[in-house]
C-alpha cells in the first residue's frame, strides 16, 4: 500500500481513544494546544494526535495503533530537544508525563524511575539519603531523554556519562512488546538505547546507579563581562591541571531584562566560572586560589548536599523561544579563547544569553566496560551557545550564533547528540562502526521506522 493509500484509508487518530486508556488530544480539540506545547516556544509542533499513556500496556496499544494505521510515534517528555522533530503532522506525540514513579533502593544505591520523571523528582530525595545521581545542569529535563542521549552532568569528568551507569531499561518496542533490556537480556537493544535515544522504542522506565556523595563543594565566580578575556584565559589554563574530581564551566552570561530573572542579575552581563568539586574542601580551596586571586565580584562557593546545585548553571525553568549552537572542541590554545571572547565578549555586540565552554575529558574520554553506544564524548570541551528566538530577536540571534560557531569551528572535534537542537544526520554523532551497529539495531527493532526520534538513526 502506498503512503497516499494509507493516508486515505487509515482511521482518524481520534479512534485512539477506543484503544488507549490515557488522555488523547486531537487537532481542533480544546486541550490540543496546551498538550502540544514544549520547552522551546520557537518550535511549533502540530502532531496528528497527542497521547498521554499511563503504563507500558497503554504505550503498547499506541504502538499497535500507529503501525496498523500508518502513523509514526514520537516519544517526548519536556520538549527540551523538540527542535529537530519538525511539525510531526504524520506522528503521534507520545507524552511520557504520566509515567513518573520514582523509587530509590538505598542499600543497593539504585534508582528506578518512570520515563516521565525529571531530575528534580529524584535528586533531592537521593540527596537526603546521602546519594547523588549523574544529573546535568537543569533539574527539569526528563531523566529518560537526558540519559538515552548520553547525559553529561556535574560529575562527568569523574564518573562519565549517565547512559553508562544505567542497569536496566523497560522499553516498548514498535512490535508492541514490553521488554526489559539489560546486559543479559536484549543486550543489543540495551547497548543501542544508551546513546541511540528514541530510535528503538518508547522507554517506560529506567534503573540506574547512584553514588555515595553526601557533600560537594560547588559555586560560581562572577566577574564583569568586560573582564571575560582575562577570566576565561585563566580558567582555560586552570583546566589543564584540573583533576577529574572537578567539572567546571567557563562562560559569558547576559541575563535578559525580564521579570523572571532575579533582581541582582536582571539585565546584567558577566564572565562566569562554575565548578563542582568532589573530594576534600581544603584541596578545592587551594585549587581555587588562582581564580579567586582575580577578584570576582561575587563568589558563591560553599559546601552543600548534591541537591544544592540544581540552579548552579542558572538555566531557565519556564519555556522560552530560543535557538542554539553546539560543537565538541578539541584541545584549545590561547588563540581559541581570544576567538571565543572576540565573538561573544563585551565588545562583540552579542546578545546571546549564554556562550559557554564545559570542560570535558577525564572519564568522558574513556570507554567504561559494558558502555552503551555513546561510550565517550570526543574532544576536551563542549561548546554551547543559546539566544532568544522570538520574532524581535530571531535574526540577531542567528547572526550571533553563526559568529560564535564560526569562531569555534577550527577546533571542532564532533558533536554530542543531546546538545544538537536542529535536524542533523545522527550517524555523524558516532564513530562509523558504532553508527553502522546502531543502524543494524534499528533494522532489528524498528524495521518499519515507526519511531520518530529527535535524531534519527538509519532514516529512510
Ligand atoms: C536548558 C537545558 C539544559 C540542558 N543541560 C544538559 C546537561 O547538563 N547535560 C546534558 O547531557 N544535556 C543537557 N541538556 C540536553 C538534554 O539532555 C536533552 O535536551 C534531552 O533530550 C532532554 O530530554 P527530555 O526528555 O527532557 O526532552 P524531550 O524533548 O522531551 O525529548 C528529547 C528526545 O529524547 C527521546 N526521548 C525522550 N523520552 C523518551 C522515552 N521515554 N523513550 C524514548 N525516547 C525518549 C526522544 O527521541 C525525544 O525526541 C539540556 C537542555 C536544555 C534545553
Tell me what the structure shows.
The chain is α+β, with helices and mostly antiparallel strands and 460 residues long. The chain folds into 3 domains: 3-95, Uridine Diphospho-n-acetylenolpyruvylglucosamine Reductase, domain 2, CATH 3.30.43.10; 102-212 and 429-445, Uridine Diphospho-n-acetylenolpyruvylglucosamine Reductase, domain 3 (2-Layer Sandwich); 216-419, Vanillyl-alcohol Oxidase, Chain A, domain 3, CATH 3.40.462. 27% of the residues lie in helices and 22% in strands. The protein has helices at 3-9, 16-19, 32-36, 56-69, 123-128, 143-148, 156-159, 187-196, 228-241, 281-292, 334-344, 394-408, 432-445, and strands at residues 23-25, 49-52, 72-76, 91-95, 102-105, 110-114, 166-172, 178-181, 202-209, 216-224, 246-254, 269-277, 298-299, 302-304, 322-329, 354-359, 381-388, 412-414. Strands 10, 11, 12, 13, 14, 15, 16, 17 and 18 form a 9-stranded antiparallel sheet that branches. The protein has a 5-stranded antiparallel sheet with strand order 5-6-9-7-8. Helix 8 crosses helix 13 (432-445), helix 9 (228-241) packs antiparallel against helix 11 and helix 11 runs antiparallel to helix 12 (394-408). The longest helix has 15 residues, at 394-408. The radius of gyration is 22 Å and the shape is globular. Residues 1-8 have low confidence and may be disordered. The structure holds flavin-adenine dinucleotide. Flavin-adenine dinucleotide binds next to strand 3, helix 6 and strand 9.
Topology:
Blueprint lengths: L2 H7 L6 H4 L3 E3 L6 H5 L12 E4 L3 H14 L2 E5 L14 E5 L6 E4 L4 E5 L8 H6 L14 H6 L7 H4 L6 E7 L5 E4 L5 H10 L5 E8 L6 E9 L3 H14 L4 E9 L14 E9 L3 H12 L5 E2 L2 E3 L17 E8 L4 H11 L9 E6 L21 E8 L5 H15 L3 E3 L17 H14 L15
Parallel strand pairs: 2-4, 3-4
Antiparallel strand pairs: 1-2, 5-6, 6-9, 7-8, 7-9, 10-12, 10-13, 10-14, 11-12, 11-16, 15-17, 15-18, 16-17
Helix pairs in contact: 8-13, 9-11, 11-12
This protein binds flavin-adenine dinucleotide.
The site of flavin-adenine dinucleotide has 33 residues, from strand 3, helix 6 and strand 9.
Amino acid at each position: 500500500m502506498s503512503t497516499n493509500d494509507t493516508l486515505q484509508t487509515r482511521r482518524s487518530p481520534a479512534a485512539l481513544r477506543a484503544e488507549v486508556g490515557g488522555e488523547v488530544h486531537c487537532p481542533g480539540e480544546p486541550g490540543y494546544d496546551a498538550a502540544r506545547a514544549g520547552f522551546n516556544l520557537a518550535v511549533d509542533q502540530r502532531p496528528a494526535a497527542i497521547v498521554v499513556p499511563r503504563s507500558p500496556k497503554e504505550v503498547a496499544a499506541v504502538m499497535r495503533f500507529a503501525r496498523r494505521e500508518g502513523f509514526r510515534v514520537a516519544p517526548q517528555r519536556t520538549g527540551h530537544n523538540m527542535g529537530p522533530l519538525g511539525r510531526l503532522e504524520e506522528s503521534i506525540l507520545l507524552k511520557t508525563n504520566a509515567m513518573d514513579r520514582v523509587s530509590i533502593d538505598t542499600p543497593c544505591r539504585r534508582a528506578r524511575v518512570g520515563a516521565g520523571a525529571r531530575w528534580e523528582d529524584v535528586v533531592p530525595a537521593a540527596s537526603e539519603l546521602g546519594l547523588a545521581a549523574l544529573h546535568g545542569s537543569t533539574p527539569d529535563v526528563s531523566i529518560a531523554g537526558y540519559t538515552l542521549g548520553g547525559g553529561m552532568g556535574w560529575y562527568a569528568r569523574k564518573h562519565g556519562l549517565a547512559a553508562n551507569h544505567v542497569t536496566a531499561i523497560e522499553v516498548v518496542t514498535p512490535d508492541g512488546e514490553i521488554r526489559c533490556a539489560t546486559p543479559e537480556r536484549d543486550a543489543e537493544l540495551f547497548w543501542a538505547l544508551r546513546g541511540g535515544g528514541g530510535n528503538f522504542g518508547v522507554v517506560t522506565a529506567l534503573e540506574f546507579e547512584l553514588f555515595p556523595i553526601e557533600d560537594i563543594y560547588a559555586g560560581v565566580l562572577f566577574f564583569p563581562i568586560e573582564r571575560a578575556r582575562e577570566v576565561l584565559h585563566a580558567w582555560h589554563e586552570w583546566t589543564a591541571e584540573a583533576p577529574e574530581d572537578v567539572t567546571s564551566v567557563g562562560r559569558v552570561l547576559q541575563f535578559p531584562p525580564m521579570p523572571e530573572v532575579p533582581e541582582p542579575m536582571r539585565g546584567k552581563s558577566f564572565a562566569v566560572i562554575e565548578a563542582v568539586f568532589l573530594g576534600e574542601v581544603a584541596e578545592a580551596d587551594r585549587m581555587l586560589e588562582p581564580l579567586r586571586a582575580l577578584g570576582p565580584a561575587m563568589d558563591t562557593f560553599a559546601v552543600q548536599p548534591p541537591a544544592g546545585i540544581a540552579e548552579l548553571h542558572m538555566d531557565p525553568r519556564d519555556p522560552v523561544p530560543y535557538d542554539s549552537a553546539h560543537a565538541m572542541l578539541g584541545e584549545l590554545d590561547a588563540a581559541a579563547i581570544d576567538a571565543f571572547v572576540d565573538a561573544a565578549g563585551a565588545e562583540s555586540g552579542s546578545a546571546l544569553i549564554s556562550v559557554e565552554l564545559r570542560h570535558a575529558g577525564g572519564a568522558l574520554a574513556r570507554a567504561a566496560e559494558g558502555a552503551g553506544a555513546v561510550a565517550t564524548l570526543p574532544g576536551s570541551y563542549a561548546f554551547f551557545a543559546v539566544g532568544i528566538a522570538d520574532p524581535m530577536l530571531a535574526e540577531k540571534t542567528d547572526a550571533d550564533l553563526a559568529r560564535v560557531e564560526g569562531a569555534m569551528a577550527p577546533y571542532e572535534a564532533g558533536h554530542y547528540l543531546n546538545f544538537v537542537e536542529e535536524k542533523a544526520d545522527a550517524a555523524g554523532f558516532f564513530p562509523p562502526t558504532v553508527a553502522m551497529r546502531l543502524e543494524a539495531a534499528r533494522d532489528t527493532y524498528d524495521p518499519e521506522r515507526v519511531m520518530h526520534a529527535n535524531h534519527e538513526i538509519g532514516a529512510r
